[in-house]
Please model this.
Amino acid sequence: MSEAQITPMFPLGMVLMPTMVVPIHVFEPRYRRMVGDCMGGRREFGVVLIERGREVGGGDVRTGAGTMARIIDAQEFPDGRWGLVVGGIRRIQVCRWLDDDPYPRAEARDWPDGRLQNAQAEKVDAGLAPVVSAWRRVRALQSELGAPGPPAGFEVSDDPSTAIWQLAALSPLGPMDRQQILTAADAAQRLEQLAAFLADAEELTRARIQMG
Model:
């Protein structure tokens, strides 16, 4: 792993996955300052899930692993609020939380996946196609319930590791399920978890459709 660096942190009630692109509305004064500082530097900050508590005002309990976010687009409003579009670029591990003055910060380091053995890599290559098919089935079933589909023009990456992140980001998962996938040891474990979550989602969605 890389050396830990002091990193601005934005605890949220969601899990930002690598490859995931989301809008964020920044209105709390301390995070306005954080965004201003980021815009003058690398345009990056860490995002971690709030396990308990609230996003506003502090006093929350935060997970120890998250994702580095890069600001793709930013608009500052006259009253000081920010509208951001950010993308998850890599996962990070929190080594130590610092004081929240002037905003949450932590000593954090990059957390790359464990290296796969040849047999594991072959298993991922062979197992990806069935998971993509399961993901497509779940998305099709959910569309019958009025759920939005993937972004227009979306294509699954040819790189298995990237594809797994994409599918996890676009799957109907709860925050703790996403966190479990985020903290998986490697792509093989992540694919196995995703397959199980999609199987559960397909069963539940079919049941909801049958119930009308």
Observations:
- Helices lie at 29-39, 118-144, 160-169, 175-182, 187-211.
